[in-house]
Amino acid sequence: MNEPVDIWRDTWVRYLGYANEVGESFRPMVSRNVVRGSYAVAFGYTVADTVDKSYKAHKRGDGPHAVVIEAGDALIWQTLASVAIPGYVINRLCYFSTEILRKYSKVPRKTRNWVAVGVGLASIPFIVRPIDNTTTWFMDNTYRKLVSYIK
Question: Which residues constitute the signal peptide according to the record (predicted)?
Answer without folding.
Answer: none
